[in-house]
Specification:
It contains nine helices and five strands, in the order H-E-H-E-H-E-H-E-H-H-H-H-E-H. The protein has 206 residues and is an alpha/beta fold. The chain has one domain.
Length: 206
């Protein structure tokens, strides 16, 4: 039978143990994506979501995420989920495919967009299944939002506010778009996105 000292130590460990889920989200960009995800009103008592924008792309981004994940684990901080957020942009097929494979090999989930993250925003308004130039995303968003869309923190705050009630519709459209292709192929399926899968995970903690 444990003595009183052992019992007190055990109780103290239970008392101070952090039972929250931990999610790490590393974004390609330093502004738009991290700012958007930071706006979600999560319950911080049950989840710790660490969002970072590090200004790298595709395979170099995933390499950095792997390094961060491994370093945090060595320091005793394990994440329930690790996500990498990036766009297809104009990166080479080799870089893009390697990034996704590297993520899979290291149990990192990917929220990609082909071509741009703004496709996720557009899906809040309309179903978008035609490939268009990146600038068209900006023009269409400006028209739909009723104000000029820019990659600025204050604007992204407004975008989150104005789109939050349309998230359910955006998720349905994103799933429809994703499933419209015979075979999932992030590199070739333009337009397509899996950002909705990350959004669904975050919404579990609101």
């Amino acid at each position: 039978m444990p003595n009183n000292m052992t019992t007190r130590r055990y109780k103290r460990r239970i008392e101070f143990r952090d039972l929250r889920d931990r999610i790490l989200i590393i974004c390609e960009g330093k502004g738009t994506e991290p700012r958007y995800f930071e706006n979600f009103p999560i319950n911080k008592k049950v989840v710790d979501i660490d969002v970072r924008g590090i200004g790298r792309n595709t395979d170099s981004l995933v390499e950095k995420v792997v390094a961060i994940k491994n370093e945090e684990e060595r320091n005793g901080k394990k994440y329930n989920q690790v996500w990498c957020v990036f766009d297809k942009d104009s990166f080479t097929p080799h870089n893009f495919n390697r990034a996704i494979q590297l993520a899979e090999n290291n149990k990192i989930r990917v929220a990609y967009s082909n071509q741009a993250f703004e496709l996720w925003f557009l899906l809040h308004f309309n179903y978008q299944d035609a490939a268009v130039p990146r600038q068209s995303y900006v023009d269409k968003l400006t028209e739909s939002l009723g104000y000029e869309y820019k990659k600025k923190s204050s604007v992204i705050d407004d975008v989150y506010r104005d789109l939050k009630d349309k998230q359910n519709a955006a998720i349905k459209r994103a799933k429809k778009l994703y499933n419209s292709y015979p075979t999932p192929n992030p590199l070739k399926n333009d337009p397509s996105t899996s950002v909705h899968t990350l959004v669904e995970e975050i919404r579990k903690f609101i």
